[in-house]
């Protein structure tokens, strides 16, 4: 069973956004906001003597490095495995449960990324120390959603009554799966879902998310993007989830975020967001747009949100 966070993060796994509610999300944001204001050298005692193990079975740039830097900024140390299938005993066929049980003996927390949906739940069940989901296949990516929500909250000062556009690979994109869960906890949010028909949310996800109270509107043409959204969340078509590479080539640039589209449809306060990496679906010309936060606020906030999470999960006093 996934533990709800409620009022305490202490000792808890972070596997799904479903463990959160409005209060726990805002509690985390309060902590991240405080940490943002404290000079780094004053934080070095927070996790002094603690060890985090990072095991990433899939490639990662930001999620891996920001967990690593977040833990170190709080004075902790890390054991890091990128690509364990070529460097650890996983290559010999060791189960992930055995691998994490070993790290449980050394570490205070384990951060895992894995290509198979549902694996993080298994990992969390296998060990007693807290486990953080850094992405499980097409399942979820809760810390990415938390940093995205934090970025929206900082800029718009609210997480309710939002008009949102999500574009790209909604079927396979784990970041959108967690982000929709997060937005569904706050009232009166409407999300316009722009994707090719082949990459829309699965029927099960669409129904489950709708039941949570968020209004989902599927659109299939950029012409139907409503004006003045609070934010646009663009995503990459997830090449690694396709069996048919020709199909990927056909769909990969179905929707591109261009300056022209922004000029036509975005408002002056529409944040331009993307979890990265981008592979052609966002024009680089937009990088200097004052509304673009994918290479700036989202990245920086990723570090602070993870610092806040580690602190709330592990702090003894
Ligand atoms: C995302 C992921 O791995 O799910 N990247 C990230 O963690 N920031 C998005 C992606 O790979 O497209």
Describe the fold and architecture.
With 317 residues, this protein is α/β, with parallel strands linked by helices. The protein has 2 domains: 17-141 and 301-314, Aspartate/ornithine carbamoyltransferase (Rossmann fold); 143-298, Aspartate/ornithine carbamoyltransferase (Rossmann fold), CATH 3.40.50. The chain contains 11 helices and 9 strands. The protein has helices at residues 22-37, 62-73, 84-87, 96-106, 119-126, 142-156, 174-183, 203-211, 245-251, 259-265, 297-314; strands at residues 51-56, 77-82, 109-114, 131-136, 163-167, 190-194, 215-219, 231-234, 271-273. The longest helix has 18 residues, at 297-314. The chain is globular, with a radius of gyration of 19 Å. The two termini are 27 Å apart. The mean pLDDT is 96. Residues 62-63, 135, 141, 144, 174-175, 235-236, 275-277 line the site of N-carbamoyl-L-aspartate (NCD).
Q: What is the SS-derived class?
A: alpha/beta
Order the strands across the largest sheet as they lie in space.
7-6-5-8-9
Shape: globular
**What is CATH's topology name of the largest domain?**
Rossmann fold
Order of helices and strands: HEHEHHEHEHEHEHEEHHEH
- Helix coverage percent: 25-40%
Which molecules other than protein and nucleic acid are bound? Answer: N-carbamoyl-L-aspartate
Taking all residues together, what is the mean pLDDT? 96
CATH superfamily of the largest domain: Aspartate/ornithine carbamoyltransferase
Distinct helical segment count: 11
Low-confidence stretches: none
Please tally the β strands and state the result. Answer: 9
Write down the oligomeric state.
single chain
Provide the CATH top-level class of the largest domain.
Alpha Beta
Could you tell me the strand content as a percent range?
5-15%
**What is the architecture of the largest domain at the second tier of CATH?**
3-Layer(aba) Sandwich
How is the main sheet built? 5 strands, parallel
Tally of distinct domains: 2
């Amino acid at each position: 069973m996934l533990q709800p966070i409620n009022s305490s993060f202490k000792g808890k796994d972070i596997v799904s956004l479903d463990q959160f509610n409005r209060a726990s999300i805002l509690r985390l944001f309060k902590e991240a906001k405080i940490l943002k204001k404290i000079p780094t050298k004053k934080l070095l005692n927070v996790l002094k003597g603690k060890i985090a193990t990072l095991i990433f079975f899939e490639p990662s740039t930001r999620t891996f490095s920001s967990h690593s830097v977040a833990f170190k900024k709080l004075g902790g140390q890390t054991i890091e495995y990128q690509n364990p299938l070529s460097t650890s005993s996983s290559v010999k066929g060791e189960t992930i449960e055995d691998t994490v049980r070993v790290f449980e003996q050394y570490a205070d927390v384990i951060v895992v990324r894995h290509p198979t949906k549902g694996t993080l739940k298994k990992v969390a069940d296998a060990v007693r120390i807290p486990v953080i989901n850094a992405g499980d296949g097409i399942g979820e990516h809760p810390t990415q959603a938390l940093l995205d929500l934090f970025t929206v909250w900082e800029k718009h000062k609210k997480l309710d009554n939002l008009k949102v556009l999500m574009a790209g690979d909604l079927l396979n994109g784990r970041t959108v799966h967690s982000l929709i869960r997060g937005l569904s906890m706050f009232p009166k949010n409407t999300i316009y879902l722009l994707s090719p028909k082949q990459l829309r949310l699965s029927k099960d996800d669409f129904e489950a998310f709708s039941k949570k109270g968020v209004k989902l509107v599927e659109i299939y043409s950029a012409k139907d993007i409503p004006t003045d959204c609070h934010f646009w969340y663009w995503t990459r078509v997830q090449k690694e989830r396709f069996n048919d590479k020709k199909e990927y080539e056909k769909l990969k640039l179905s929707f591109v975020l261009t300056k022209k589209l922004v000029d036509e449809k975005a408002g002056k306060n529409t944040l331009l967001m993307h979890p990265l990496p981008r592979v052609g679906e966002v024009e680089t010309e937009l990088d200097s747009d004052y509304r673009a936060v994918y290479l700036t606020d989202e990245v920086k906030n990723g570090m602070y949100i993870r610092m806040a999470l580690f602190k709330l999960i592990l702090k003894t006093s």
